[in-house]
Design a protein that fits this description.
Layout: H1 2-8, E1 14-18, H2 26-41, E2 45-49, E3 62-67, E4 70-76, H3 77-81, H4 85-91, E5 114-124, E6 127-138, E7 141-146, H5 153-160, E8 168-173, E9 176-177, H6 180-186, E10 187-190, H7 203-210, H8 216-225, H9 241-255, E11 259-263, H10 271-283, E12 290-294, H11 298-304, E13 307-310, E14 315-316
Parallel strand pairs: 1-2, 7-12, 7-13, 10-11, 11-12
Antiparallel strand pairs: 3-4, 5-6, 5-8, 6-14, 8-9
Keywords: ATP-binding, Cell membrane, Membrane, Nucleotide-binding, Translocase, Transport
Protein name: ABC superfamily ATP binding cassette transporter, ABC protein
GO cellular component, one term: ATP-binding cassette (ABC) transporter complex
């Protein structure tokens, strides 16, 4: 919102938005949509590069489909809106209608096998963020966590992974209480901004850093499954945003930790890449991991998760 407001204040005639909804909740997306409507009414041009499409469907005047750096097809607004599901999926496009998330709620805290969170309270920069958080994530089950922007989801992931110490509460793994340092050793977190966790000088070395004892065949298998093998010698910072995201997810899988936490893992991913990440995470169920996904991407959550925990159920401390 701040970035959009700062650009609007410059009174440009053309707005170019690159993945503006990547980390936005439904309310924030609706606010952005209203802003776009206002800009159109003012007679200004809006160019949007976006994977999340449903909120734009009645606003689009033209749609340009780009593949491998080339313009493949240009649609009128009506032509684009009338794409069949078969055409959309073949093109690798996300849902053209608002996805509905219908999954059972998370179990209350107390699971013996898996991760159990009881009465958790966290703060950031000495300011309280949330309190009274409680849920269970069983082994072999994918738990999705949702909540509005500012609900404390990212702070919660940092706390679960031991990157941030809790103020109060208990976190147990398989019935054993874990302090922050122990949680850090047992878990791996794919952060919302993966640029903060890619350190090595090549894609291959980044994978080895995640699991130094990992057989080369396993690294090759994972990189191939994420379509990254051809980039194994490339510096991670030279990858596209979507490629960085897939690399971070790949390193999480290779880490072989008991608890895997993914914070917005589909940011910047098209339909096909989203499916790849979903399928790889589902396969981890067979390895009896604790898997937690924090996301606003209902299309992805509906495909990937077994249960959902809504953070609006705990006490959120608004600053």
């Amino acid at each position: 919102s701040l970035a959009f407001a700062s650009v609007y204040a410059m009174n440009p005639s053309i707005f170019v938005l690159d993945e503006p909804t990547a980390n936005l909740d439904a309310d924030a997306i609706d606010t952005l949509r209203q802003q776009i409507i206002q800009i159109k009414k003012e007679g200004r041009t809006v160019v949007i590069a976006e994977h999340r499409l449903y909120f734009l469907m009645d606003l689009i005047d033209r749609a340009i489909f780009i593949q491998k750096g080339k313009i493949v097809q240009i649609f009128s607004g009506n032509e684009f809106r009338n794409l069949s599901d078969e055409q959309r999926i073949r093109m690798g496009l996300r849902s053209l209608v608002h996805p509905v998330l219908e999954l059972p709620p998370a179990d209350p805290s107390g699971a013996q096998e898996g991760l159990s969170v009881e009465n958790l309270s966290c703060a950031f920069d000495k300011q309280p963020v949330f309190s009274g958080l409680g849920f269970s994530a069983k082994r072999g089950e994918v738990l999705g966590i949702v909540g509005h922007n500012g609900a404390g989801k990212t702070t919660m992931t940092r706390c679960l992974c031991g990157l941030l110490k809790e103020v109060n509460g208990t976190v147990r793994l398989d019935g054993q209480t874990l302090k922050a340092k122990q949680r850090n050793k047992a878990s791996f977190c794919v952060m919302q901004d993966v640029n903060h966790q890619l350190f090595s000088d090549s894609v291959w070395n980044e994978c080895e850093l995640a699991q130094p004892d990992c057989p080369p065949e396993r690294i090759e298998e994972i990189l191939r499954s994420f379509d990254l093998l051809d980039f194994k010698d490339r510096h991670p910072m030279a990858l596209s945003g979507g490629q960085k995201q897939r690399l971070a997810v790949a390193t999480a899988i290779l880490s072989n930790k008991d608890v895997l936490v993914f914070d917005e893992p589909t940011s910047g991913l098209d339909y096909h890449r989203m499916l790849e990440v979903s399928n790889m995470i589902r396969k981890l169920n067979d390895e009896n991991k604790v898997i937690i996904i924090v996301s606003h991407d209902f299309e992805f959550l509906g495909r990937t998760c077994d249960k959902i925990f809504d953070m609006e159920g705990c006490s959120i401390e608004r600053r």
